[in-house]
Structure formats: C-alpha cells, structure tokens
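Message: Just now I want nothing more than another pair of eyes on a protein record. I am handing you a single protein, as its sequence and its fold in token form. As I understand it, each token names a local backbone shape. Take your time, and here it is.
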Amino acid sequence: MYERLIFQNLTYNLETPCCNERPIPVLLLMSCNAPDSMYLTLLQNYQQVLNRFVGPTEIFVSGDTLQLKDYSKTDWEWTLFDPAAKKLRHETVFPQECKKAYELGAALVR
C-alpha cells in the first residue's frame, strides 16, 4: 500500500520529483507488540517520504500490544516480557490509544 501512495506521484525527474498537485493528509497508524520506540526511526523515514510525495503525514503508534488474550494457555514460555503488565496496559492504555487514533482519523476528514 505504501508504494502505491508514493509511486503514483513520482516523476523520476530531478527538477520536479513529484507531480502531486493536490496533497492529501495521511495518518500512518501502527500497532505492534514491541515498545513504541522500536519503530520510531523507520516510521519517521516513511513520514518524510509521504510528506514529500503524498501530503502532510502524522504518525500514531500503539506499541506493547497483546499478541494473545491469555498467555498462560500456550505451551510457550513468554520470558521476554511480563504478560501481566501487557494485559494491564491493554486494559488501561490501549482503549485510550484507540480513542486517540479514532480522533486523529476523524480530524482528517473534517
């Protein structure tokens, strides 16, 4: 999807690299099991390219999300993180992040 947003506006012309005459706002949402900061540099690179070829881009990351509803029901030992802390974050922080993502999306269409 990312490529389709970029390449339709790419001219391969050094003097005028972008032919997008009507920039559109972009909201790049990402949810991930890793902490928010793990993907920050990658997403900032995406943001720079989207800003240039598509339109003003905002990033929103919801990190440290759950992979499973109940980690105790697997045969795997989840020792890299604390499943109880993930569950607590999912119950307390994640709903606020979902609301924020909704508000950011709604602001795009106003």
